[in-house]
Amino acid sequence: MFISTCLFILVMLYVSPNNVDAGILDPFNWARSDNIEIASLPFIPWLPFENETRCYDELGCLNITRSWFHLINRPLNIFPLPRFVINTRFILYTRANPNEGAAIRPNSESLTDTIFQSEKKTKVIIHGFIDTILANWVKDMKDELLKHDDVNVILVDWAGGSLPLYTQATANTRLVALELAYLLNYLIENLDMKAEDVHLIGHSLGAHLAGYTGSLVPNLGRITGLDPAEPYFQGMPPHVRLDPSDANLVDVIHTDGKGILLLGYGMSQPCGHFDFYPNNGKEQPGCEIAQTPLIPLTVIKKGLEEASRVLVACNHIRSIKLFIDSIGSQCPYIAHQCSSYKDFMNGKCFICKPGTTQCTIMGYHLDSSPMFEETDISKRQFVETIGSKYYLNTGKENPFCHRTYRISIELAKPSIAETWVQGFLKAFILSPNGIMQIDLTPSGDVKLEHGTTYTTVVTHPADLGGNIKKIEMNWEYDMNVLEPRTLCLLWCNDHLYIKKVYIDEMEFPSRE
C-alpha cells in the first residue's frame, strides 16, 4: 500500500501538467529545473530528468541524476531553496572569544589572521534537521572543544534550510555543503589553513552535509558523523550519503538504528572507516519508555528544549552526548571490532593485540588510539576497517563512559547437581575502590549448564586496576509455571555450583 501510494504521488508530480511544480512542498517553484518540457517526462515516475542542473554563482552547480533516485529509499528529489532563504552563516569562536562569536564569510575583511588563526586546528560543528546553533548541545560541544584544545571552532548556522519539510531539508544540505566547502577552500588558499587540520562534526542531516563538504575539499582531515540520518540516505550510493572517501578519517557513532518504521532516525548501515555501535546502536540505556517520568526533572534542570529532545529523540541525540563526554573524559570509550553484538556480549571479541584494529577509542580521541601511533592519517586508507562494526556498552547517564569487563564463570558438575538450572546471577566484587555490584544476567534469566563456562561482558564506572580482594556470587533460581521443565520442587536441586571465576578488564596493549 505504501509503495502504491508513493507511485501515485510521483506519477501526479511528473505527469499532470498542473502538478509539474512541487506543489505544497514548493509553492514558489524554487525546487524545480527552469526548463522542463512535459513531453520529455520519462514513463517511469521515479527516474529523474536528464541534465537537471542549477548553478549558484561562485559556489558551483548541483544536478539531480538517476543515481539520486530509488523507488523505496529516495523516491523524491528536489533542488535546494535559494541561498537567501537558507541564509547559511558561519560563526567563529576561539579561546580569545569563547562566548561572543564572530560572523565570518569568504572574501571578507572579517577573515584575518587576528580572528582566524590558521596555524591552529579547526573544528566545525554542523547541526541537523529542525535544529539551530542555539541548541544547548551546540554550545556544550563548542565549550568542551575550546576547554580541551586551543582550536578554531566554527558553527554552521543553516536554520533557514533545516526547518522546512524533511524532503526539502535533505535537498538543502547540498547547497549548504557548497557554502561550507567554499569557505574552507578559501581559508586553505588564502590563509594557509591545512585541509588535514579540519575536523567536521555533524549530527543527523549534518553528518551527510559534512560528507558532501568533504567531497569538495581535497585531503580533508576528519569527519565525525553523529547518528547520520537514515531516511533518504540508507541504502543509497556513496555520493548520496556520508562515506569513507569524504575525508582522510571518517568515524561514525550509531545510536538510533532501529529503522524509521520503528521511529529510529539514524542509519544502521556502516558508512565510515570506523563505525561504532554503543549498546548495539539501537536502544540506549536511559531512553526506555519507563524513563519518561524523568522528563519533568529534565525540564527543571535543562529547560523545555532539552526535555523535548529527550522525549522525542533520546536515542538519536545520545550520539551527541557520548561525543561531548568523550572530549574531556579520562575514561576511554574502548570499542571492540566484532561480527555481531551478541558475540561481543558473549566475550568473543575481547582480545586487542598490538598493531591491530581489533579495538579502538570511540569519540573525540579516536586518533589517539594505539593503532594511530606513528601513523600519518592523511596517508593511511584504513581500508581494512571499512564495513566493520565496533561495539561497546555505556551507562545511562553522564558520565556515560564505563570500564568494560569480561567475566567467565566455570561451573562445576558434582554428582548432586542438576544438568542445568535457570535463574539470575549477580556478582559483588570487593576492591580497593570499594564494592562493585554487577548484574551478570541483565537481559533476564539464563539457562546455565553445569560443567560448562558462562561468559558475559559487563560494564561499570569503577576501574578495578587489576586489584580484586574478594568475589561473592548471588544466585536466584527462577521457576516459570509456563515452562514445566523449569519447575524445581521436592527432590530437585536448584543450586548453582561454581568452580572458578575469571575477570578480565579491557585495556589497550600499550597499558601495563
UniProtKB/TrEMBL annotation:
Q: Does the keyword Calcium apply?
A: yes
GO terms for biological process, alphabetical: lipid catabolic process
UniProt GO cellular component terms: extracellular space
Write down the CDD domains for this protein, in alphabetical order.
Answer: Pancreat_lipase_like
Q: Which UniProt keywords apply?
A: Calcium, Disulfide bond, Metal-binding, Secreted, Signal
MF terms per GO, please? metal ion binding; serine hydrolase activity; triacylglycerol lipase activity
The Lipase domain is annotated at 55-400
Short name of any one Pfam family annotated for the protein: Lipase
Any signal peptide, and if so, which residues?
1-22
Q: Which cellular compartments is it found in?
A: Secreted
Catalytic residues, per the record, are S204 (nucleophile), D227 (charge relay system), H316 (charge relay system)
User: Where along the chain is Ca(2+) bound?
Assistant: R241, D243, D246
- PANTHER family per the UniProt record, alphabetical: LIPASE, LIPASE DOMAIN-CONTAINING PROTEIN-RELATED
What protein family is recorded?
Belongs to the AB hydrolase superfamily. Lipase family.
Designated name of the protein: Lipase domain-containing protein
